[in-house]
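Milestone 3.1: sequence recovery, worked example.
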C-alpha cells in the first residue's frame, strides 16, 4: 500500500510540473507577442507624409491612419517644393514669395532658419548635407500660357529669358554657398545615377541640361522642341540606365539613355507633369494634369498598363514607404488621393486644404519629388 501511494504521489508531482512548465511557456510566448506588437505598430505609426500647400504651410499625414495630424507653419508664403534630410530630422521647403527655403525641425515643427536662394524657388532636392533648389526668375505672373501661345508680355528679347540659378545650400552651415546656372525657368531636378551630375528641366527654352554637380559646368544640352515643349518632371530609373522627362506641351515622355541620348518618346494624356518609377523599376507613373489621370506604363515596353481617374490639378505624388499606396496631391481638389499601388484604384481622399502642391514621405519612398534610398 505504501509503495502504491508513493507512486501515485510521484505521478501527480510530475503532472503538476508539466502543467507549470506549459503555463510558463504560454506566458513567455504571449509576452513575446505583446512585446513585438507595439514595435510593429510603432513602425507603421511612425511613417508620415509631408504635403506642401501653396496657400498655407505644410500638412502632416499619419500614414497609419491616413489622417492629417498637424500643420506646420513655414513662416513664409507660397510653399511648393519640399525635401527631407536622410535622417528625417529636417524638412526643407521652397517658399516662392520671399525667395527662400524654410528649414523645419520635424520633431517640433518649428522653423530653424530661412535661407535666401533666389527668385521664385520651386523644386528642392537633398543629397547629403546639401540642398539643391531650382528657381524661375523669368516666370510671369498668372496662369501658364496654352500650348502654342505666349504670355502677352513675352517678346523675342533675350532679356526676358533670364538664366535661372540652382542654389546650392549647405544645410550644416545654414547658408547658400554657390549657384549653378541653368536655363530660364528651371523646373525638375534629378541626380545622375553616379551622383556626379545634376539633371535639370528648363521649361522656358525647352531644354534638359546636364551639369557637373561639383563645378556647375554644363556637360550637355538636350533640346526638346521637336518632341514637345515645356519639359517638367525628370526621373532616373532605379538601375540608372534611363532618364525620363515629361513634356507638358507635347503630351509625351522623353526617354533618354544613361548618356542622355534621346531614344524614343511615349504618348501620354494631356499635360503630363510629375513622373516616377516604382521601387523595382517595373512601372512608370505619370500625373497628367488636364486629363485628370494617373497613368501607368510598363517600364520595359512603355505600353500603357492603366489609367486611374483623379482630381483637379494633380501634379506631384509619392509612394508610401511600404510601397502599398500612392499619395497624389490634387491642388484644386483640396485633397490627397490615396491609390492602391497594386489594384491601381483610388481608395480614399484625404482632405488637405489650401492648394496641396507636393508630397514626400518619411521613411523616404519613390515619388515625383524624391527617390528612395
Amino acid at each position: 500500500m505504501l509503495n502504491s501511494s508513493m507512486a501515485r504521489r510521484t505521478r501527480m508531482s510530475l503532472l503538476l510540473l508539466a502543467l507549470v512548465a506549459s503555463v510558463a511557456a504560454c506566458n513567455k510566448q504571449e509576452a513575446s507577442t505583446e512585446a513585438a506588437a507595439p514595435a510593429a505598430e510603432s513602425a507603421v505609426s511612425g511613417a508620415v507624409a509631408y504635403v506642401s500647400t501653396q496657400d498655407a504651410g505644410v500638412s502632416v499625414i499619419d500614414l497609419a491612419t491616413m489622417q492629417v495630424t498637424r500643420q506646420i507653419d513655414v513662416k513664409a508664403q507660397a510653399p511648393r517644393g519640399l525635401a527631407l534630410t536622410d535622417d528625417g530630422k529636417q524638412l526643407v521647403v521652397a517658399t516662392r514669395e520671399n525667395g527662400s527655403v524654410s528649414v523645419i525641425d520635424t520633431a517640433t515643427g518649428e522653423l530653424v532658419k530661412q535661407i535666401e536662394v533666389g527668385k521664385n524657388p520651386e523644386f528642392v532636392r537633398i543629397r547629403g548635407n546639401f540642398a539643391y533648389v531650382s528657381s524661375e526668375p523669368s516666370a510671369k505672373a498668372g496662369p501658364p500660357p496654352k500650348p502654342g501661345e505666349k504670355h502677352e508680355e513675352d517678346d523675342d528679347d533675350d532679356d526676358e529669358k533670364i538664366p535661372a540659378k540652382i542654389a546650392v545650400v549647405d544645410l550644416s552651415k545654414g547658408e547658400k554657398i554657390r549657384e549653378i546656372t541653368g536655363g530660364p525657368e528651371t523646373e525638375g531636378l534629378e541626380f545622375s545615377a553616379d551622383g556626379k551630375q545634376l539633371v535639370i528641366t528648363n521649361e522656358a527654352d525647352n531644354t534638359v541640361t546636364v551639369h557637373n554637380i561639383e563645378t556647375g559646368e554644363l556637360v550637355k544640352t538636350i533640346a526638346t522642341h521637336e518632341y514637345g515643349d515645356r519639359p517638367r518632371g525628370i526621373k532616373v530609373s532605379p538601375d540608372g540606365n534611363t532618364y525620363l522627362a515629361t513634356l507638358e506641351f507635347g503630351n509625351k515622355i522623353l526617354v533618354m539613355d544613361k548618356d542622355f541620348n534621346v531614344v524614343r518618346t511615349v504618348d501620354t494624356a494631356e499635360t503630363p507633369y510629375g513622373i516616377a518609377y516604382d521601387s523595382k523599376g517595373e512601372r512608370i507613373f505619370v500625373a497628367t494634369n488636364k486629363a485628370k489621370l494617373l497613368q501607368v506604363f510598363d517600364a520595359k515596353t512603355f505600353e500603357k498598363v492603366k489609367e486611374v481617374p483623379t482630381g483637379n490639378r494633380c501634379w506631384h505624388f509619392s509612394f508610401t514607404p511600404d510601397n502599398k499606396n500612392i499619395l497624389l496631391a490634387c491642388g484644386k481638389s483640396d485633397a490627397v488621393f490615396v491609390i492602391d499601388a497594386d489594384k491601381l484604384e483610388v481608395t480614399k481622399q484625404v482632405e488637405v486644404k489650401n492648394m496641396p502642391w507636393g508630397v514626400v514621405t518619411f521613411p523616404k519612398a519613390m515619388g515625383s519629388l524624391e527617390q528612395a534610398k
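Confidence is low (pLDDT under 50) at residues 14-44, 151-159. The first strand starts at residue 48 and ends at 53.
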